[in-house]
Fold this sequence. Notes:
34% helix, 8-stranded mixed β-sheet
Amino acid sequence: METYDIIFIGSGHNALITAAYMTRAGRSVLVLEKNDRPGGYLRTEEVTLPGFKHDVYAAAHPLFLTGPAYVDLGKDLEARGLTYVNTDLPTGVSMEDGRTAVLPRSLEALRAEAERLAPGDGPALARMFEDLHPYVNEVFSLFHCDLATPAAAAVIARLMGAPPFAALLFSTARHVVSLFHSPVMRAMLAPWVMHLGRTPDDIGSGIWVPLTALALMGGGMPTPAGGSERLAQALAQLIVDQGGVIHTHTLVQHIIVDNGRAVGVRTADGHQFRAAQAVVACTTPDHLYLSLLAETAIDPALRQQAAHFRYGRGCVQIHLALSEPPRWPDARFHTVGQPHLTDGLDGCILAVAQGRADLLPVKPTFTVDCSTNLDPTRAPAGQAILRVQVLEVPIRPRGDAAGQIEVGDGTWTHDLTERFTERVLEVVRTHMPNIPSAVLGHHVITPDAIAQFNPNAGPGDPYGGAHDLAQSYTLRPLPSQPSHQTPVPNLYMLGAATWPGHGIHGGSGYIVAQKLLAAGGADTTERQGKNTTRAHARA
Ligand SMILES: Cc1cc2nc3c(=O)[nH]c(=O)nc-3n(C[C@H](O)[C@H](O)[C@H](O)COP(=O)(O)OP(=O)(O)OC[C@H]3O[C@@H](n4cnc5c(N)ncnc54)[C@H](O)[C@@H]3O)c2cc1C
């Protein structure tokens, strides 16, 4: 049986980041991925027409670029072709009535924009950041820690002991933005919590308003030149160059546990691989405890929690190939990263409520991003691509809030997908008059497509599990497992289902790498020498 120090189940970017750290430290590593290429949701493909390179799933990586993994690995990734294009206007908003705003990275410019929208909103913005200021460094430090460690627990206790912080933590995004007079400012800031798996009326969403604004101001809206998949390619190349092995088309079905310790995995095609130091699962806890560890004795309470792991609502992502760049409602949007199109915060909240009732929303609030704004190589000369990301859509709609679209049994059939796409593009048209006339081709990612692509999506959730308060922070992935370390010795978890949750930031990949490095060298006596030097990706 082939033996490696560390075996990874799944090749999401968090797993690849840990694998890059471990191969750099001289450990032998095997990454097993069920899909045809490593990288999980990092995929760039010509899904509409030849020459139009779309980020099929994730596109922007602001948190990765400002995180510690990029500090440590950035140079090596750049040496393997990764470069980012970025903007000084990460986001903005276009209102149905024609009003617009942008969020510049400079605090001074953002204050001026707030003041332009409504006198008094500049100081209100400064107050929002000042309220968080005493806590912000400790809060951001937690993004790179396992929250179950004593060091993190001490920070959390300090933060929660400060009543203003605790009040902010339990507030809603709608409440936080109510300090602005301008409905445009409110509509620019609050809907961003949806990208974090929260909605503007969720208890616990409030703190994410200033945190997201700060993160965007710090990171911008970077995306790899050539497409999001360049990050996965650079990580995979780094792992292979450092002696790691990546097998694709390989579904892991079983974690082998011997004497209570994780010692290897078995794949769907019957191969077994042995892990001398650790097995690292880039999975959700239900997949882990109910399927991969189905034959292992696990605390029944933990297994029951895993059975009740909750998924969030769905995402419909529409990719457009355009004959010309979008006609933006505001000239500044020619360099904006990801603006929301909306009829206002109340409209956004109404659409969310419709989604929550498993109804197709009548008029959703969503982002659009045009990668060719910053990277014209992504489309033929003079042409453009556009990504429309509609969140909080029912995974399996039971009806249409407008009473116009027949949803059948809720399966995202071609007809349902096309009719909902038409509805969304009708909203886009009110903001960008050359849509849909400039559309040459389109490709739509539905909740069903997401579920089929990635087992970590459960029934089709893009967040790797709901991010409500009861499944966040020290309760993620499960209340009885508030850590990346599982109760099975040698078995670790990372990825969107673990703290700090979903998004391309590499947070859990960094955390698990630090744990494995701290755990010291592996017992390599069993290792087969040939595996330590083998460096290839099996296609
Ligand atoms: C449509 C969409 C758009 C998004 N847009 C953005 C964005 O613009 N910016 C952003 O920051 N985030 C975005 N996200 C979220 C982001 O992509 C995810 O949170 C992130 O990719 C999660 O990374 P991960 O490391 O958990 O692994 P994932 O990307 O979830 O990958 C997990 C991998 O593990 C594999 N796997 C799982 N189980 C097994 C098994 N048993 N055997 C073998 N392989 C297995 C899967 O096939 C998959 O390839 C988007 C998500 C979606 C769905």
